[in-house]
């Protein structure tokens, strides 16, 4: 984000306010620019540099949040599409697939008839929260502090609003703990079923992470090239940061192109510990 003058800031603030006020109208770039008396090219460039996404993407985000709110209130999919300013259910469908990785209907019915087990397990790298559906593991989170103990469960309740939650250490959860503790062979990782929800782009990135062997590292640039989108390094970094299954989807094996370890969602010190352990055990195999 570059430094803006007071005038530029006020202009961008006015644009954002306009988008909030007119999101249901799905304004074009020309209409947005006209609202502040500037050219569409200038508004596009300044908005992209300041906000980080284009005005069109910002409107899509606002529309999606409004649609999610309506679906949670049990509005029909057609009414949700029209009330969000979209031309029909097709556009609403595309919007949800792009940003949520599921259809509007699936979002509305999240967790219906699903029994979700969760438990807290012990590993050498700290306690973990593990959750699974009948289809497989849907969440593994390292517990940071006692004050954050309930956070992973609360986040999952928001994601699967209609599911039944059972505090139970299922055999699958115990296998996860044992594997992270180094008690199982590496091939067993492939037998642990995963239940993932994400955008098509996120799923491609997470699939690429699964291909990184223990004891080896990849840069964000290499992951971007592996999925065939070499210019999407920042988007790759964002998808890596949103990985819902710690360790089994080894986002800790991704570093910066400079060789710097970089940050880690579950603390940089834990990332260093994980990598050190893997390097010691598997580093001479690659």
Automatic annotation (TrEMBL):
<keyword id="KW-0234">DNA repair</keyword>
<dbReference type="InterPro" id="IPR001497">
    <property type="entry name" value="MethylDNA_cys_MeTrfase_AS"/>
</dbReference>
<dbReference type="GO" id="GO:0003700">
    <property type="term" value="F:DNA-binding transcription factor activity"/>
</dbReference>
<dbReference type="InterPro" id="IPR036631">
    <property type="entry name" value="MGMT_N_sf"/>
</dbReference>
<protein>
    <recommendedName>
        <fullName>methylated-DNA--[protein]-cysteine S-methyltransferase</fullName>
        <ecNumber>2.1.1.63</ecNumber>
    </recommendedName>
</protein>
<keyword id="KW-0804">Transcription</keyword>
<feature type="domain" description="HTH araC/xylS-type">
    <location>
        <begin position="13"/>
        <end position="110"/>
    </location>
</feature>
<comment type="similarity">
    <text>Belongs to the MGMT family.</text>
</comment>
<dbReference type="InterPro" id="IPR014048">
    <property type="entry name" value="MethylDNA_cys_MeTrfase_DNA-bd"/>
</dbReference>
<keyword id="KW-0805">Transcription regulation</keyword>
<dbReference type="Pfam" id="PF01035">
    <property type="entry name" value="DNA_binding_1"/>
</dbReference>
<dbReference type="GO" id="GO:0006281">
    <property type="term" value="P:DNA repair"/>
</dbReference>
<dbReference type="InterPro" id="IPR018060">
    <property type="entry name" value="HTH_AraC"/>
</dbReference>
<dbReference type="InterPro" id="IPR036217">
    <property type="entry name" value="MethylDNA_cys_MeTrfase_DNAb"/>
</dbReference>
<dbReference type="Pfam" id="PF12833">
    <property type="entry name" value="HTH_18"/>
</dbReference>
<dbReference type="InterPro" id="IPR036388">
    <property type="entry name" value="WH-like_DNA-bd_sf"/>
</dbReference>
<keyword id="KW-0489">Methyltransferase</keyword>
<dbReference type="GO" id="GO:0043565">
    <property type="term" value="F:sequence-specific DNA binding"/>
</dbReference>
<dbReference type="GO" id="GO:0003908">
    <property type="term" value="F:methylated-DNA-[protein]-cysteine S-methyltransferase activity"/>
</dbReference>
<dbReference type="InterPro" id="IPR009057">
    <property type="entry name" value="Homeodomain-like_sf"/>
</dbReference>
<keyword id="KW-0808">Transferase</keyword>
<dbReference type="GO" id="GO:0032259">
    <property type="term" value="P:methylation"/>
</dbReference>
<keyword id="KW-0227">DNA damage</keyword>
């Amino acid at each position: 984000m570059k430094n803006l003058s007071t005038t530029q800031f006020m202009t961008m603030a006015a644009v954002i306010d306009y988008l909030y006020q007119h999101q249901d109208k799905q304004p074009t770039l020309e209409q947005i620019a006209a609202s502040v008396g500037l050219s569409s090219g200038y508004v596009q460039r300044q908005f992209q540099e300041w906000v980080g996404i284009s005005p069109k993407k910002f409107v899509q985000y606002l529309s999606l949040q409004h649609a999610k709110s309506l679906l949670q209130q049990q509005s029909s999919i057609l009414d949700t599409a029209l009330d969000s300013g979209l031309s029909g259910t097709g556009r609403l469908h595309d919007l949800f697939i792009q940003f949520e990785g599921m259809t509007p209907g699936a979002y509305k019915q999240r967790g219906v008839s699903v029994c979700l087990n969760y438990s807290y397990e012990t590993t050498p790298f700290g306690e973990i929260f593990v959750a699974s559906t009948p289809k497989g593991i849907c969440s593994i989170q390292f517990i940071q502090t006692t004050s954050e103990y309930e956070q992973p469960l609360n986040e999952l309740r928001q994601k699967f609003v209609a599911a039944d939650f059972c505090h139970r250490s299922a055999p699958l959860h115990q296998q996860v703990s044992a594997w992270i503790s180094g008690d199982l062979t590496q091939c067993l990782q492939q037998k642990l079923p995963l239940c993932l929800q994400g955008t098509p782009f996120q799923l491609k990135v997470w699939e690429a992470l699964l291909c990184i062997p223990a004891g080896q590292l990849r840069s964000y640039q290499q992951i971007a090239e592996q999925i065939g989108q070499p210019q999407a390094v920042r988007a790759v970094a964002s998808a890596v940061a949103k990985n819902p299954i710690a360790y089994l989807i080894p986002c800790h094996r991704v570093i910066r192109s400079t060789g710097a370890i970089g940050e880690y969602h579950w603390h940089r010190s834990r990332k260093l510990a994980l990598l050190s352990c893997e390097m010691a055990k598997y580093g001479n195999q690659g």
